Amino acid sequence: MTKLKLSAIPDDKSVKITVELPAQVFRDLQAYAAILARTGGHASPQDPAKLIVPMITRFMETDRGFARAKRQDASRVEPADSLRGK
């Protein structure tokens, strides 16, 4: 087997999904965008859809239970080097 300097390259392409939100959640996103624009000194609010990714990212970064479970799952996966002898 050829030994390469690079290992598998992670898939970093964006994935487009369609999400159906309750009307109240969308109104809250609009309000959040308006407040964010006002506090940031912007003339107009950003598209509320642009807030979804940073909100989900922040939520997952601060969820301790998720971080713990993710670390446990990662520790169960065998490193690629240990598979070479098989």
- Count of strand segments: 0
Give the overall silhouette. elongated
The main sheet comes to:
none
The parts where pLDDT drops under 50 for at least 5 residues are: none
Task: Give a quick summary of the entry.
The chain is mainly α and 86 residues long.
Word description of this protein:
The protein is mainly alpha-helical and 86 residues long. The chain contains 4 helices and no strands. The protein has helices at residues 23-40, 52-62, 64-76, 80-83. The longest helix has 18 residues, at 23-40. It is elongated.
Write the layout of secondary structure elements.
Elements: H1 23-40, H2 52-62, H3 64-76, H4 80-83
Features:
86 residues; mainly alpha; 4 helices; 0% strand
